[in-house]
Amino acid sequence: MVGNSFSYSRSTWSSNMALAMAGGIDGFALNVGSDSWSSNRVADAYAAAIGTPFKLFLSLDMSSLPCASTGDAKLIRQYVNNYSNHPNQLFYRGQQVVSTFSGSDCKFGQSNINTAWNYAVKATATKPIAFIPAFFSPTSSFASTTVMNGDFNWNGGWPMGDYDIDFSTDQTHINAIGARYYMAPVTPAFFTHYGANSFNKNWIYRSDDWLYNSRWELLIQHRAQIDIVEIITWNDYGESHYIGPIGPDQPGSQAWVNGFDHQGWNIMTKYYADAWRSGVYPTISKNQIFLSARPHSKALTIKDPIGKPNSWQWTDDNLYAVVFATGPGSLQLSIGSSNRTTAISAGVNKIKLPLSPGSPTALLRDSNGNLLISFSPSGFTYVTKAAAYNFNYYMAASP
Care to name a GO molecular-function term for this sequence (predicted)? Predict the structure, then answer.
């Protein structure tokens, strides 16, 4: 989210790219809106990537950028053409990748969606374009939306109801887009809590039962049908699905973001990204524990003027553990008065435990009972009282 990078220097971009590459990530989709300073941050990002294998591409945020008149296409054309010859620009099958968030209603002074986006993105492009937008339009319209070279199914990262994630919406989009490209989303969570005097967004999507792991496993299983995987997101703090470090340029989301680090999901990503690229899950060479939970019960009643988020009932009060294990053993997991011990096998193990007020501890032992990891993350507490609703996750990774 370039909109959350106001204070970034070139070195900030470099450090974020280094963290992303350590997590197995190949590049950033740069979500750009109408902020006057955004073009400078985009330029810094491309400059910071030089000399690295890290790729970048533009994701035009049409919930922010104007798109009614012919003149509104000028900035978009500049963005596309400024970086078409850049060594770190992402090309897919010889075409420069350009994406969007929204934009199915854009006209740019034209008569229909095809002529509109051809005019804005393709007509003056200096390189062939792979236009892969996230249009929030019925999939039945894809056949006639010939300007699309592919589809980014933005809402496919979360289940859209009170059920676990599956591949059904992906398959619907894949069937509708036909032989064109399919870009699939993967994401760890969604919670936003803005009042009517702000962005007026106050809801969750179901993210329980190890959503990030389960979603990656689905994408790896169906990798032959997918061209690109995009993680939602590196730094969208307002919607709680960031996996990078918490930066200073938050969109008024500090109340539910500060103290809720998510970088464990980035650490976890490399295992799945390597499996995505190769089609084979790598052998785990290092034992590691990942813990995540929300800070209070979904049933808690709080004097919060914004109110309880919509779909709050789609959550469960559990501590979620993921263990990357090199061999068999056991995990002793506890929080407050709740505890359990579970047998662990080599590979990825998923364990959940009902939450109880307190802080978690996880003890990993090998098959001989030798203690391998003792993990009690600091600042990670499940409480019975709170000043405001927070359905964001604590997420912590053991050393």
Answer: glucan endo-1,3-alpha-glucosidase activity
Neighbours of 82 (CB within 10 A): 15
> What are the boundaries of each domain within the chain?
2-278, 288-397
- Residue 55 is given by DSSP the state E
Find out whether 281 and 264 touch, Cβ atoms under 8 Å: no
Rounded to whole angstroms, how far apart are CA atoms 336 and 93? 53
Question: What was the pLDDT predicted at 173?
Answer: 98
288-397: same fold as 2-278?
Answer: no
Distance CA 397, CA 270 (A): 14
At the fourth CATH level, which superfamily is domain 2-278?
Glycosidases (3.20.20.80)
H or E, element range at 28:
strand 27-32
- The architecture in CATH of the region 288-397 reads Sandwich (2.60)
Structural element, H or E, at residue 217: helix 211-221
pLDDT of residue 247: 96
d(CA 321, CA 375): 11
Instruction: Output the pLDDT for position 24.
Output: 98
CB 331 within 8 A of CB 323: yes
Residues in Cβ contact with 273 at an 8 Å cutoff, skipping those fewer than 6 apart: 23, 24, 25, 26, 229
